[in-house]
Amino acid sequence: MCFFSLGIYSRLAVKAASLVIVLLGVLLFVVVIFGATGLSDRVLTAIVNEEVRLYRQAVAGQIRDPQALEEAITKYRDELTRSYGLDRPWYERLPNMLLRVITLDLGRARLAQTFKGSNLISDIIMERLPNTVILVSTAIAINFLIGIFLGVRIATRPGSRLDRSTSFLSAISYAVPTWWLGILFILIFSFYLKLFPYGGLYSSPPPQDPFMRALDVVWHATLPVSVLVLVNVGLTIYVTRTIVLNIAQEDFVQVARVKGLPEGLVNRRYIMRVAAPPILTNVILGLAGSIGGAILTEAVFSWPGMGTLFFEAIVQSDEALILSLVYMFTLVYVVARFVLEVLYAVVDPRVRI
Amino acid sequence: MSREEALRVEDLKVYYMTEKGYVRAVDEVSFNLSKGESLAIVGESGSGKSTLGMTLIRALPKNASIVSGRAYIFGDEILSISLQDFRRKFSWRLISMVFQGAMNSLNPVLKVGDQVAEPLIYSGGLPKEEARRRATETIETVGLPREFYNRYPHELSGGMKQRIVIAMALVMNPQILILDEPTSALDVTIQAQIINLIKDLIDKLGLSVIFITHDLALASDIADRIMVMYGGQIMELGSTDRVLGEGPKHPYTEKLLSSIPRLRGEGMPDFIPGRPPDLSSPPPGCRFHPRCPYVFDRCMKEEPPLFNINSTHLVKCWLRGD
Amino acid sequence: MSAGFRGGFRIYWSTWTGRAGLAFLILLTAVSIYTITVLPVAEISRQWNDPQHWVDYPKSSPPTWVNLFSEKKLLETTTLNFGNTQFSGSSKSTYLTLNYQADSYPSYISLSIEKLRYTGTPPVLVLSIVRPDGYSVEASRIIVPPPRPGENPPITRFEQAPERVLITSSDDLARNLAQLYEDRFDVIVSPIKVLQDGVQRYLMSTPKDGALTPLKGVYRFTLTAIQSSGETSIENGRILMGGEAYGLMGTDVIGRDLAVGLLLGFPISLFIGLITSIIVTGLGASLGLVSGYFGGKVDNVIQRLADFMNNIPLLPILIFLVFSFGAKLWVIILVFVAFGWPGLTILTRSIVLQLRESQFIESARAVGASSLRIVARHIFPHIAPFIIAQIIFFTPSFILLEAALSFLGLGDPSLPTWGQILELGFRSAAVYLGYWWWILPPGILIIITSLTFVMISLGLEPVINPRVRVRSRG
């Protein structure tokens, strides 16, 4: 009740501010780790070396005298070292480094590239992010539809065989690693049954016709989406069922019936309407937690999104890419939580003061 | 009785099915209520008083069943008809109820005014505008400003919520109103306000009221007659003047009465020795005998009938007859 | 916990999930203890991390028991041992025979010589093979290195590691077989084609209607030491015919016995799961206890921190940290601990807050008990069962997290885990080649281990949280 006197906007503003603090905190933390473990020095040195190499190639034709050449290169290297701040310890470089990370100016990736060949990390992320959004949001939508539909149905028959088996299945799905289920699905549906592709976003070459192309994406997305849904839907069903069941036992539901309201209205207004906010919170928090599952699922299905990029960055030991991806994941997570907060204010009048 | 009879209950038995067997929550209860009369049902928790209220509004939980008995509202039997019929013809139109715990009776995400107006629309068939107007009037009747129509439950204090719940019960102009512990969660000053409101409403609207409470003092303040329940049975039933004015005739009522100065809203009179009886295996004889200071042989063997002390005062105790 | 331990256990035992969970836990523990006894740490590095140990195993082979279920029988790995052999006097050769009756060819044939000793001139070891049809080919030659300056006879060679010759990739044998096919069967085939198709196919077939048919019967492998003077002895020599099936669980792409890796996974995943969970629970509960009981500034700081941590996406940060600090077991555990405590702290705090207001704490405080005493004697015993349940509840999440990190290539490389087995499998394209024996068992074991703790948790729930028990109304 500490927000009692605050309006909805100021309340949301307070929340936004605290999430920005979280974001900055994570960033600061990551940057400190980045600097303290010496990773930063290694990344910058690599960049400097690469630029010096390019410079050497460029000027080798113009400067004939080997000694003058070496001098020019050394001068150039010193300049670069100073401009990147490599001559100072990381904690003096830190403010500048923070600023660069915030503006996503993280330089270039080692090996990863966009489709068109750019190796600017911001370009790569802008190319991959939509793919992840498509995959994850489809999975979330399907998970929502199935989970809430079944959860509500089951809540009408608590203690039934269906109810008990659902509770047990959702417990099992907690114990199944998402990524392993992905591998299993590839083995069954791609290797043995040959129904779906092994991975990727398009067939190669991708179909030219836009409609066929869309179908091709759907065909490629079927397995990863199924995996994400299967692993999460048990929890959604269970959470929905429990919340609906608890609310159905509330006094005001019984009062509504006694008041002579039709059963349909009671279900809609007195059960579902009240259950919506907590279901929303639980499910979305659960799904936000499944970001990890999405990273791994993408990696398994070589889905060209942020998760696969993260996997590649690790395999290639690309520090700069890893750093910016950690930042991006936190950003996405924090934004998602803020959207949830807004959504919550819309559905629940208790928040909307 | 010159006045018209609003409600009559005959030989009502309501049992709960539990793992331990039947729990006789209400056992052989009969009483009547005249038009404009207020009856207080007094007892500890577990005495069956709330179950009795729930039975009359047909809102018993699934594991409860009406084993026998009839109840008539203005001469029409209401326990044997289908639930749909009851809800269409009686519920909220003739008999309505203020349930225990006002905060739990309100849907937290719906405007309170809409919750008051709903039965007018969906059961009464009124257009929305008309329903809204009538609901606003009712909200004013219970002493709240009309703007409260658009408030949500969490924006109201406990007393305000209680008023809204009362308005909700009154919106269809019922003849009979059951109030189940309407003041138990409120502090003392608010309690007094609510009690005064209820008294006003009884006078103004000519309501017949069943007032369920554990607080004998409160009951005496509001009720024309008092019905004391223990272990699912009526122990004493008579006009307030007789039961309290001339002194109680049942040892249990006596105990309840002597505990009044100590009672403050919540809780039961904890210095009555022993606990309320286990109704899945009630003690033989009189159900109160394990805790009764005047207990003698017969109390343990034979259950006393309701002795008629005079035409309006019944007592279930071997001390009052033979 | 008025029900006490016995009563609690009876409630636990009455749920089938509780019984199954406990049975699985006993099984997992037993396998772990067996593994630790049979394969101590030194043995792990030998059997799993030392290429010498599994160099002769067939690569990417299914387990042998698949033969029970399939029509076509896969060849099992066969070893022929020459044993301790003296090459002396007039007979400077020794031989072994093999009755070959399989429908398929060995995946490879190798010859290894252990600890060769010679006097006189350095010998040349020649392996020749006589086929069931009587034709003979020379398979391989091992030229033993001459004495180094200052070395005195007897000279010992191949002492540290046995000399191993993969005769199925021997150019000599390919050439000799091409010659044999031309001379005897009038089939012209180039040595390169022989090498490409697999030397063993030509060695162990006869051409019939333009195709190769397996030649069944007795093969004779003769090992001869050619030496102008002196004597030669070997401690052991063996011929290995690589099968297409190996052991109970098959092998991975470099030939490691997956059974060993899977066995080692048991104690490691139990250790990581339980240790992490115990530390996380201990830390989380203590912080919650302090935060809830003492309140004030400490409470504020702890709650802010917990709230902060709750707003961070866990896996990316974990990946980043393990990547920065290096994939070592203690780093992984430390990182899990650092990020695992907030949820439990918030939960414990709310329980302690409720307890603090309860009557028995009030009365303890009224009679002047110290804070420490109240926490130790009154609050802790109350939340202890809850804490134990939390340990069990958290264990599978850490097992799964570790597996996920391993799968991303961030597992501790010195310890084989199920996640790492899967990682190598996935990266060696096992799934695209249908190597199910490499993919299924580690995953199933991860699930069974996690599920064990999930089931124990489910069984503990009615014990710890009596509200779950069916309520009866009076």
Short description:
Chain B has helices spanning 49-56, 83-89, 102-105, 112-122, 128-141, 158-170, 188-205, 216-222, 240-245, 251-258, 297-301; strands spanning 5-18, 21-34, 38-42, 64-73, 76-77, 95-98, 176-180, 208-213, 225-230, 233-239, 307-310, 313-315. Chain B is of the alpha/beta class and 322 residues long.
Do you know the CATH architecture of the largest domain in chain C?
A: Orthogonal Bundle
Helix content of chain C: 40-55%
Structural class of chain C: alpha+beta
Number of helices of chain A: 13
What's the main sheet of chain A like? Answer: none
What is the 3D form of chain A?
Answer: elongated
Number of strands of chain C: 12
Provide mean pLDDT of chain C, rounded. Answer: 85
Low-confidence stretches of chain C: 467-474
Largest sheet of chain C: 6 strands, antiparallel
- Contiguous low-pLDDT stretches of chain A (5 residues minimum) are 1-5
Count of DSSP E strands of chain A? 0
Radius of gyration of chain A: 26 Å
What is the third-level CATH name, the topology of the largest domain in chain C? MetI-like fold
Helix fraction of chain A, binned, reads over 70%
Number of domains of chain C: 2
Radius of gyration computed on alpha carbons of chain C: 32 Å
The overall pLDDT average of chain A reads: 83
Query: Could you say which structural class the secondary elements and strand pairing of chain A correspond to?
Result: mainly alpha
Order of helices and strands of chain C: HHHHEEEEEEEEHHHEEEEHHHHHHHHHH
Please write out the topology.
The complex is a heterotrimer of chains A (353), B (322) and C (474).
Chain A: H1 8-36, H2 39-60, H3 66-84, H4 90-102, H5 121-155, H6 161-175, H7 178-192, H8 210-248, H9 251-258, H10 263-289, H11 291-300, H12 306-315, H13 319-347
Helix pairs in contact in A: 1-4, 1-13, 2-3, 5-8, 6-8, 7-8, 7-11, 8-10, 9-10, 10-13, 11-12, 12-13
Chain B: E1 5-18, E2 21-34, E3 38-42, H1 49-56, E4 64-73, E5 76-77, H2 83-89, E6 95-98, H3 102-105, H4 112-122, H5 128-141, H6 158-170, E7 176-180, H7 188-205, E8 208-213, H8 216-222, E9 225-230, E10 233-239, H9 240-245, H10 251-258, H11 297-301, E11 307-310, E12 313-315
Parallel strand pairs in B: 3-8, 3-9, 6-7, 7-8
Antiparallel strand pairs in B: 1-2, 1-4, 4-5, 9-10, 10-12, 11-12
Helix pairs in contact in B: 4-5, 4-6, 5-6
Chain C: H1 4-13, H2 16-38, H3 41-49, H4 51-54, E1 78-81, E2 85-87, E3 93-100, E4 108-118, E5 124-130, E6 136-143, E7 155-157, E8 163-166, H5 171-185, H6 191-197, H7 199-203, E9 205-208, E10 211-214, E11 217-226, E12 232-242, H8 258-294, H9 296-310, H10 314-325, H11 329-340, H12 342-357, H13 359-366, H14 371-407, H15 418-427, H16 430-433, H17 436-464
Antiparallel strand pairs in C: 1-12, 2-12, 3-11, 4-7, 4-8, 4-12, 5-6, 5-11, 9-10
Helix pairs in contact in C: 1-17, 2-8, 2-17, 5-6, 8-9, 8-11, 8-12, 8-14, 8-17, 9-12, 10-11, 13-14, 14-15, 14-17, 15-17
